[in-house]
Amino acid sequence: MNKVGIFYMYWVRDWADDFHPYIDKVADLGFDIIELQTGTIESIGPAGRKELKAHLDERGLDFTSVIGLPQEYDVSSEDKATRERGIAYMTDLCKAMGELGGGIVGGITYSYWPATLPPGVTDKRPYFDRSVESMKRMAQAAADHNVILAMEVVNRFEQYMMSTCQEALDYCAAVGHSAVNVMLDTFHLNIEEDFIGEAIERAGDQLGHFHVGENNRRPPGYGHIPWTEVFNALRTINYQGPIVMEPFVTPGGAVGEAIKIYRDQTAPIGVDEDARRALEFVRGLMK
Ligand code: MN
User: Fold this and answer.
1) Which of these is catalytic: 35, 42, 152, 193?
2) Which end of the chain has less neighbouring CB within 10 Å, N or C?
3) SS3 149
4) 282 with 220: CB under 8 angstroms?
5) Domains and CATH numbers, the chain
6) Residue 246 annotated among the catalytic residues of the structure
7) CA geometry: angle at 235 spanning 224 and 2, to 5°?
8) Annotation marks residue 198 as catalytic
9) CA–centroid distance, residue 233 to ligand 1 (Å)
């Protein structure tokens, strides 16, 4: 049975907020996993990670993590110094993850986020090639610390490198390392893929992490994502990995701005109860 989680950014407005109150909340709501921000796992230092690990263990919670690299760490950049800075940062993130026993780093580690190709540029191949070369080195750092780097496929308005599952598979094949695989997200699949179920099936055993969210970024159950198709596809490929919801419903703060939340989408029942019902909904789909 897949473990089900939620990204703690559902409740907070700042990318670097404190994890601890949300560990209790997420455990109390009945989730198996809390998804954390990888950059914060690194920035809290060894003592902070010790406390984090103790708290997770105490509450019996697993964790996953995601990050969208800032542009200063763009590992696909034309500028070699920027690429080296990005690889060094990713190596630090892997080391920090290693202190927690390793785990998944999802999101956009192959470029930066949010990103567009420079004006006038239509050929992304040089960015792809530089990214693959960087990722080969990052994969080694990941493997050294028991980390899996899952390449999240995101929609064209947020990134250009890979908009479809096939593009991510091509990228992973070019890297050719078992520490690098594919991450899909129903919010993005809904925008870019011809058929959502088919895209999930195409990922097959390369699927390393999975985000569930509605077309409007609300928790699963309040939009028009074809959930039966999604979960049938996950069953077809026998996906055993984490299933993490990533709702964003509240405007404001760095998170609301980056995700472009321009209206209050919180449910009248409140965000906690909304998450609890979404968890029930997802577990129901897994049966
Ligand atoms: Mn996502």
Assistant:
1) 152
2) C
3) strand
4) yes
5) 4-286 (3.20.20.150)
6) yes
7) 90
8) no
9) 18
